[in-house]
Amino acid sequence: MFSIDPQATYLMPAHFGPRYTGEKTSGWYHDVTVVAVPFKTERDKLAALLPAGFQLADEAVVTVYYACNKNIDWLAGRGYNMVGVNARTVFAGADAPMEGNYSLVIWENLTDPILVGREVQGIPKIYAEIPDHQIQEGVWRCSASHF
Q1: CA gyration radius, the chain
Q2: Which fold has domain 27-141?
Q3: Which pTM value belongs to this model?
Q4: CA distance linking residue 69 with residue 5, whole number of Å
Q5: CB atoms within 10 A of CB 130
Q6: Taking Cα atoms as reference points, which of 146, 147, 144 lies closest to residue 64?
Q7: With the CA atoms of 51, 54, 60 and 62 taken in that order, what torsion angle do they form, in degrees rounded to the nearest 10?
Q8: Are 89 and 56 contacting, i.e. CB atoms less than 8 angstroms apart?
């Protein structure tokens, strides 16, 4: 009979067993290409998207990024692509305020990182078709779509 180990971490279906963690656990992404475009935006519109406890940094900056991730250890050498939108924020921490990026949304083209990120880490991830970027005559292009 299957029983859950309260000290282990599980993904669904749980009866497949706990996630392995140990000496061979690796989160290495060996080949990553990132293109990021930050821009200033309307402060009140961006602030309306933030949950309680967060406020915008001095400047209302949004960053849209694309990442092509290849040769990932935990995916047995496979990869996936992502497009994300971050807001520069300050979190009112218990000890001191912390400045960083708040992830508004991330689109990814592979179920495994979507599920682990959403269900285990609480990252706002959704699916999109995201082909590898193209570079033609010095111009970088990437896209994301769904249906």
Answers
A1: 18
A2: Acetoacetate decarboxylase-like (2.40.400)
A3: 0.86
A4: 33
A5: 22
A6: 144
A7: -60
A8: yes
Tens digit of pLDDT per residue, the chain (147 long)? 888 999 988 877 888 888 777 777 778 999 999 999 999 999 999 999 999 999 999 999 999 999 999 999 989 899 999 999 999 999 988 888 999 999 999 999 999 999 888 888 889 999 999 999 999 999 999 999 999
Task: List, as one string, the DSSP characters of 39-67.
Answer: EE--HHHHHTTSPTTEEE-SS-EEEEEEE
CA–CA–CA angle 145, 104, 54 (5° rounding): 175
Q: Alpha-carbon distance 147 to 142, whole Å?
A: 17
Residue ranges of the domains in the chain?
Answer: 27-141
Question: What is the rounded end-to-end Cα distance, in angstroms, of the chain?
Answer: 42
Q: How many whole angstroms separate alpha carbon 18 and alpha carbon 61?
A: 40
Q: Both tokens of residue 86?
A: 């971050």
